[in-house]
Amino acid sequence: MRSFWIFGNQLSHELELFDHVESDDVIVIIEATSRATWRPYHKQKLVLIFSAMRHFAEELREKGYTVDYHEADSFQDAWDDHFTRYEPEEIHYTAVTDAAMEKKLKQFGQQHKLVEHTDVPLFYLTKKEAVDTIGNAPWRMDRFYRQMRKRFDVLLEDGKPRGGKWSFDADNRQPPKDGLTFPAPIHFRPDAITKDVIEKVNRDFADHPGDITPFVWPVTRSEARRALKRFVEERLETFGPYQDAMLSDNQDMSHSLLSAAINIGLLTPDEVVQAAIASDAPLASVEGFVRQLLGWREYMRAVYVASMPGYESVNTFKHERDLPHYFWDAETDMHCVHQSVKPVIERAHNHHIQRLMVLGNFATLFEVSPQQTSDWFNEMYIDAYDWVVLPNVLGMALHADGGKLATKPYIASGKYIDKMSDYCKGCKYNPKHTTEEDACPFNALYWNFIDKHEERFAKNQRMKMMVRNWQGRDDDVKADILAKARQTIHDTDSL
Ligand code: FAD
Ligand code: SF4
């Protein structure tokens, strides 16, 4: 007989590996405590993975597969037990992306006969195809995305982009209007399996960060399908225009909240894309959403595969400061940071622009170590895996790779955060002030960053205006701003 090992982020009935399973083969699923402690993962992340694994095992048994499910201290313990019982000739598995897991598999493969299967449809491209498509650095997402649209024939008419342009990004940056509301996403109630897992995580992982309840995430394919249906029917319409907007106490807006389910295989990216295309939503919203999955998600994965190992330690600006306590307790007077960290503590998620414009921007301007920042993202989010965290944090948000992934650093002053959110209305600081007592901390630090990296960005098409703006200021004005920036960095913990 042969064993087919399925990992906790590969819970898809569409895995190609199932085409090879015969009646005397056994499916192996391992809930390993050691893996759950590689990092202090948010409690809800552990609940999601363990509960989804247990549900998936049940579904496979109902389909007639023999499933050997282990709750074990380590993968090795589980395999020792499995070998004693079944003595498999071969171990089949689906290709993994994360470098650490791949390394473990290689070690495992020194003692056992391993057979790898493709990870399509968990991704559109295999790892090799991803690297071939992305080409050499510096990489560019718009180029990659156009190739993907053509290759998979998505939103094309006669070989041309539907609506006459490849991207409606420029239409997708509307600031939030007063009184704006959005249809709510579905929240799921924990069933008996999830309740058991919550009890286990509370007991065995009590020192991990984050609240464990309310736990509202989909843990089965059928729940994830319901979430997708609600999204495309009721919420996608407003996804486009307000993609870059942020509202206090509305952490969902029109975001799909599907990343957690997609990243563990409950939904394939292509079925999500097809559901969006089949919806009645306006083209700008549909294209904006398709771009996230067919474009950004595949692009990030390609960057990761093309640049590991090595990418994890990039630090172009040599930033070494620590993340402040409020990344764990949300206790800060900076209302934007409070509003962005709170949902992470409460349910291991916030939306893209909070991650980018507030938290990533904070880490860049406050000169926080990129590795500490990516560790925090890796540990605190329900949808986090190395392959998606490292490019998003180190490349897109922090520009720590020096521009391999994106043309410019994503930095924003308080004035821009004020434009794109309602956060500043409830804040102790004033987004219009730069050096005054009540000045928004982001403002002086924004110019501090431009000052320090003036030379690097003077010729950058998208940065040179800001550099010139800075260079045109009087020396004493600059000195005041830089003094305020030094003070702000010094006071980081008490802001
Ligand atoms: P939506 O806004 O509804 O987007 C739709 C889908 O597109 C998402 O579900 C996701 O699958 C995909 N997507 C969109 N943008 C990206 C992107 N940049 N990279 C990869 N997929 C994308 N995404 C993760 O899945 N895991 C992470 O750990 C993660 N960390 C991030 C860290 C930073 C600093 C930044 C800037 C972005 C990060 N992202 C990450 C990307 C993005 O923020 C999340 O995918 C998104 O917020 C998930 O919520 P959603 O499902 O409501 O997404
Ligand atoms: Fe954030 Fe500054 Fe606005 Fe306060 S004033 S919410 S710190 S951007």
UniProtKB/TrEMBL annotation:
InterPro entries: Crypto/Photolyase_FAD-like_sf (IPR036134), PhrB-like (IPR007357), Rossmann-like_a/b/a_fold (IPR014729), UV-DNA_repair_photolyase (IPR052551). GO terms for molecular function: lyase activity. It comes from the Bacteria. The keyword Lyase applies. Keywords: Lyase. The keyword Lyase applies. This is Deoxyribodipyrimidine photolyase. It comes from Exiguobacterium chiriqhucha RW-2.
